[in-house]
Amino acid sequence: MTDVVCVGAHPDDVEIGMGGTIAGMVRQGLSVAIVDLTDGEPTPAGTPETRLAEAAAAAERLGVSERRTLALPNRRLFDTVEARTALAEVFRELRPRVLFGPYPVDAHPDHVAASAIVQAARFWAKFTKTEMAGKPHYPARLYRYMAVHLRLLREPSFVVDVSDELPAKLESLALYHSQFSANPANTELLGSIEAVAHMWGATIGTAAGEPFFSEEPVGIRSLDALI
User: Fold this and answer.
1) Residue 32 and residue 59: Cα distance in Å, rounded?
2) Domain total in the chain
3) 162: number of Cβ within 10 Å
4) What are phi and psi of 208, to 5 degrees?
5) Beta-carbon contacts of residue 196 (< 8 Å; ≥ 6 apart)
6) In a domain, 206, yes or no
7) Domain-embedded: residue 8
8) Parent domain of 79
9) What is the DSSP string of 15-54?
10) Any idea what the CATH number is for the domain that residue 49 is in?
11) Per DSSP, what are the bridge partners of residue 68?
12) CA Rg, the chain, in Å?
């Protein structure tokens, strides 16, 4: 059983949106897995082999217990029966308590599709009369992280303080050489990601933060979580 599963359309999506939160959860003793729905290729400076190696290195830097890349097509990602089944079977195997998926509004069609696939697969994973592998399982919570191509400023359900984990987040992203340092169009992107983290941290009075969104009320076990 895995405590948390974080799903992205492409390798590096999860790290951009919630790399600091992942590092913090691992530090607290939670088991965290990342599932990339596609290999993210082709890109200007990447190859499937390079991207998989970079994703593995980034996951290791964050302390992730497992990372999987599904065989769904980059640039042609849609919420299909095949996509739902593939992800639902992962949920049935790993049996997470909590899911994280992409924010549903974005300019990138793959991100929008990934958001829908996560929600549908969460429901499908609990089916009983099915040919899907594994036993039924319904993750208790689904939260959304933001790693979007639009300049959105939305009111989050909560913001996680990642002040201590921001270096790990940025270091994990820097391991995607093909996407950042080797791509002239993205050389300034890491600085922008860091600036956004500081902006969200300022909203909660800390050095850095990551926002999350929930369609359901967010429950807490103790008021200490609000401090």
Assistant:
1) 10
2) 1
3) 25
4) -155, 150
5) none
6) yes
7) yes
8) 4-149+156-214
9) HHHHHHHHHHHHHTT--EEEEESS-----TT--HHHHHHH
10) 3.40.50.10320
11) 35
12) 17
What single-letter amino acid sits at 219? G
63: which 2 tokens? 């302390």
Element (H, E) at 110: helix 109-124
The whole-angstrom separation of Cα 201 and Cα 35 is: 27
Helices and strands per DSSP (H, E), number in the chain? 6, 7
Residue-wise pLDDT tens for the chain (227 aa)?
899 999 999 999 999 999 999 999 999 999 999 999 999 999 999 999 999 999 999 999 999 999 999 999 999 999 999 999 999 999 999 999 999 999 999 999 999 999 999 999 999 999 999 999 999 999 999 999 999 999 999 999 999 999 999 999 999 999 999 999 999 999 999 999 999 999 999 999 999 999 999 999 999 888 877 76
The b-or-e profile of 96-133 (16+ CB within 10 A means b, else e) is: bebbbbbbbebebebbbbbbbbbbbbbebbeeeeeebe
Rounded Cα gap, residues 12 and 2, in angstroms: 21
- Tell me, yes or no, whether 227 lies in a domain: no
**Is the residue at 224 inside a domain?**
no
